[in-house]
Design a protein that fits this description.
Blueprint: H1 5-9, H2 15-25, H3 29-49, H4 54-63, H5 72-75, H6 80-90, H7 94-105, H8 109-133, H9 138-146, H10 152-155, H11 169-172, H12 174-220, H13 226-252, E1 256-258, E2 264-266, H14 267-272, E3 288-292, E4 295-299, H15 304-313, H16 316-319, E5 331-332, H17 351-363, E6 368-374, H18 381-401, E7 408-413, H19 427-430, E8 435-441
Parallel strand pairs: 6-7
Antiparallel strand pairs: 1-2, 3-4, 5-8, 6-8
């Protein structure tokens, strides 16, 4: 199965960035998330349509080393590389794209334009980094982008289409349209030929029966009626059966469109079914003051900090007989997220929750914890275990540096061992399995 680069890019556009963008642009988080969900497949589609454009390939190659990913909110707006790239892939359609996204998501055109630059920066930066990490040259990048053509339309959220951007599939992927026409024409020709042959056979059979009937009448003075009537009835029944089969074939013939990878898509489904998985809508949650022995920590009501403090205050840890009594209760981090494929770079907004954990451990110096890292079911399991272990060790090292290392007994990576969501599910669904967690230990 071809790599879906949108799954890679989403790692750069997580909840932390959505929250920051909403604050910076003065928009709601739901509006920002909705806009990103529509822009991401549109930008990837634009790049895929220009997979053989030397200027586009050069921009992607250079993106991995120009620091775009490190400063998406601040470095994308006026970046000349991104401005030039948008002009190359969308031409005079940029304004229409921005307006459509603004209307769809309920944000201003200025915010939609800034998000277009941000999403484009995240896209070329991520693809460029992937290409650099996997030693892909221009031809490899071109092949990777071409592979995306068959999936773009299905990833647009409900209410959007390429046509709504003025970027109809017939303009981007004309080859598919030509293939549809070709297959349709061939199907019609074959069906017409079959019907004509059937008619010819029936006519020939009828002619022979008429001749036989005439001969019988001439030779036998009329003869038995069954000598000619029975074959005629059988021939009529055969003709009726053949006609019904041809009619059935005509009504069930499905026109198919081949994408650039050679796979086929039912054209009836292209316009009627829309996968909304590209839109990642984070439930609205507001930071509140969580009481830690008179000190207020910023966190979610019912979130990790709230649950851990409540357990410690209840003497649940003190009364636990041994580690076995604690091993099944894990507390998932709400804010701590690593950048895609990294075990050493946290997403913006992650440090605050690590600081909260440090404060909790300092307030309860007898408490001991264990760190766990988890991945979804996608990818090589050995690599997943290695990555999740490295991330757990990174958090442990951060806690050691903060002065509570003695309370961290272990950091372990479990890979996809406890993942519950199928590998073929959408990225938004699999996100539940990609997490960092902590539990109390003895």
């Amino acid at each position: 199965m071809s790599l879906n680069v949108i799954d890679l890019i989403k790692g750069q556009l997580g909840p932390a960035l959505v929250s920051q963008a909403a604050s910076q642009f003065g928009e709601s988080e739901s509006g920002i998330s909705k806009a990103i969900g529509g822009l991401l497949p549109a930008v990837v589609g634009g790049l895929a349509n220009n997979a053989d454009n030397p200027g586009v390939l050069d921009a992607i190659t250079k993106a991995s080393s120009n620091g775009i990913l490190g400063n998406l909110l601040g470095g994308s707006s006026n970046n000349p590389i991104i401005t030039s790239l948008l002009s190359s892939i969308f031409g005079d359609k940029v304004g229409g794209l921005v307006n459509s996204i603004a209307t769809f998501s309920g944000i201003s055109n200025n915010s939609a334009g800034s998000l277009l630059n941000l999403v484009t920066g995240a896209t070329v930066g991520t693809v460029g980094k992937y290409a650099a990490d996997n030693n892909l040259g221009a031809s490899g990048i071109s092949s990777l982008l071409n592979d995306q053509k068959g999936i773009i339309s299905s990833l647009l959220p409900a209410g959007l289409s390429l046509a709504s951007f003025g970027l109809g599939a017939e303009n981007w992927f004309g080859q598919a349209k030509e293939t549809v026409s070709s297959v349709t024409s061939t199907a019609k020709d074959n069906l017409a030929e079959g019907v004509a042959t059937a008619k010819e056979n029936v006519s020939e059979g009828a002619r022979e029966i008429r001749e036989q009937f005439n001969n019988n009448n001439n030779n036998q003075g009329g003869g038995s009626i069954w000598k000619w009537l029975l074959p005629l009835l059988l021939l009529i029944a055969a003709a009726y059966f053949l006609w019904k089969q041809c009619d059935k074939k005509q009504s069930t013939t499905t026109t198919t469109a081949a994408d650039s990878t050679g796979s086929t898509t039912d054209t009836a489904a292209v316009h009627s079914s829309t996968d909304t998985s590209a839109t990642v809508t984070t439930p609205a949650r507001t930071d509140e003051n969580i009481d830690l022995n008179g000190v207020a920590l910023k966190g979610y009501k019912g979130g990790m900090e709230d649950q851990m403090i409540a357990f410690l205050k209840s003497d649940g840890y003190k009364n636990a007989a041994d580690d076995a009594a604690l091993k099944d209760k894990w507390y998932d981090f709400d804010h701590v997220n690593f950048k895609m494929g990294s075990a050493t770079e946290l997403e913006a907004g992650s440090q605050g929750q690590l600081d909260n954990l440090v404060a909790i451990l300092k307030a309860f110096p007898d408490a001991k914890i264990k760190i766990g890292g988890y991945t979804d079911k996608v990818g090589n399991e050995a690599s997943n275990v290695k990555l999740s272990k490295a991330r757990a060790e990174y958090i442990k090292a951060a806690l050691v540096k903060a002065g509570v290392g003695a309370q961290v007994l272990e950091a372990e990576g479990y890979g996809s061992k406890f993942a519950k969501v199928d590998a073929k599910a959408s990225d938004a669904e699999r996100a539940a399995d990609r997490k960092m967690a902590v539990r109390f230990a003895k």
